[in-house]
Amino acid sequence: METVLSITNLTKKFGRLTAVNNINLEVKRGQVFGMLGPNGSGKTTTLGMLMSVVNPTAGAFSWFGELPSNQVRKKIGAVLEHPIFYPYLSGQKNLELNAMIKECPPENIPNVLELVELTERKDDKYKTYSLGMKQRLAIASALLNDPTVLILDEPTNGLDPMGIAEIRELIKKIAANGKTIILASHLLDEVQKVCSHFAILKRGNLIHTGPVADASKGTETIEVHADVEGLNELLLNFGGTSSIARENGYYQVSLRDSFNSKDLNRFLFEHGVVADHLVTKRKSLEKMFLEILAEANH
Ligand SMILES: Nc1ncnc2c1ncn2[C@@H]1O[C@H](COP(=O)(O)OP(=O)(O)O)[C@@H](O)[C@H]1O
Ligand SMILES: [Mg+2]
Predict the structure, then answer these.
(1) CATH of the domain at 89
(2) Ligand nearest 50 Cα, by number?
(3) Which listed ligand is nearest to 54 at the C-alpha?
(4) pTM higher than 0.90 for the full model?
(5) Res 178: pLDDT
(6) Cα 185 to ligand 2 centroid, rounded to whole Å
(7) ∠ Cα 227 228 232 (to 5°)
(8) Spatial distance between the Cα atoms of 280 and 224, rounded to a whole number of angstroms
(9) Is the minimum distance from the CB of 31 to ligand 1 under 6 angstroms?
(10) 179 and 95, same domain (yes or no)
(11) Which of 30, 42, 214, 256 is deepest in the core (most CB within 10 A)?
(12) C-alpha 105 to ligand 2 mean position (Å)
């Protein structure tokens, strides 16, 4: 599958605070990729770097295999902070202004309005919109230039349950239309409901990445340590690996259904690696995330 985004050793420091610590990540075409983490874990900072509004302290990333440039950024639509719309102008007029600024054809406006289900309200003033409608208009605006990737930061923050459900449905619809979506959220259930893949950030560290489907399964997790280079890659190459997390200096390898610790041990041994620590654990990601949240709230 085509790689849309590749992040290598990306780091951002604000003075003494490391907001994003040496993260590595890949997003493939068609994924709905969730960056899950409690408040302050570095999600918005990461998205800011990916959109070139925050300068990385170290590391790099590429979009579609290319270094960031204005040209490449045209393929990315983003709803980052609260977007600025004119309260006394209609949704339609606001989109016309945005289309002009972004130099994209105004013919796209009816399509994006239809997609976010605002066609009927397009001539009403922005200030009369509900929060959910405002968020939908922001998404419409981000889609004006028909980007390949859509980036959303906490897309349901502040919305009522109805608005939340609408936005989640909309995200699924946009994904079904073939767009790759990257979203940041502090809500586990949001990521579970709308994402295909996800990563967990904890105080700027990426501690897990993998498919959402595997995370909800109560699969066997093996805690592994071996004093060799490239253990991460080797573990990923093992056919029984469904996902890998790094915690307390150990790799936590979640296994696919029909695999067990013996299979993993044999695989490592056959590749010349003798593990000095190999312990079977069962711990769902849900539990892990709740523990992280509890810690963050201290
Ligand atoms: N411009 C900034 N200057 C100083 N510290 C910042 C700045 N932006 C973010 N931070 C800090 O970086 C950390 C990560 O923040 P952020 O990326 O906003 O996390 P999240 O989006 O996951 O809530 C926090 O500790 C936050 O206070
Ligand atoms: Mg944030």
Answers:
(1) 3.40.50.300
(2) 1
(3) 1
(4) no
(5) 93
(6) 8
(7) 110
(8) 9
(9) no
(10) yes
(11) 42
(12) 31
Ligand 1 neighbourhood includes 185 CB (under 6 angstroms): no
Co-location of 235 and 195 in the same domain: no
For residue 159, what pLDDT is reported? 94
Structure tokens at 36: 């899950």
Which residue range is the domain that position 263 belongs to? Answer: 219-281
Residue 261 sits in a domain whose CATH number is 3.30.70.980
Ligand 1 proximity of 41 Cβ (cutoff 6 Å): yes
Evaluate whether residue 21 is within a structural domain: yes
Which tokens hold the place of 37? 């983490």
Q: What is the pLDDT of residue 217?
A: 63
Please give the distance, rounded to the nearest whole angstrom, from the Cα atom of residue 152 to the centre of ligand 2: 10
Within a domain: residue 56? yes
- Our count of domains for the chain comes to 2
| pLDDT score recorded for residue 160 | 94
Q: Is residue 61 part of a domain?
A: yes
Q: What is the mean pLDDT of each run of 10 residues along the chain (298 residues)?
A: 95 97 96 95 97 95 93 91 87 96 92 97 97 96 96 95 95 96 94 94 91 73 90 92 87 85 93 91 67 65
d(CA 19, CA 257): 36
Whole-number Å distance, alpha carbon 288 to ligand 2 midpoint, is: 20
Residues 23 and 112 in one domain: yes
Helices 108-115/91-101 angle, 10° precision: 130
Strand partners, 78: 151
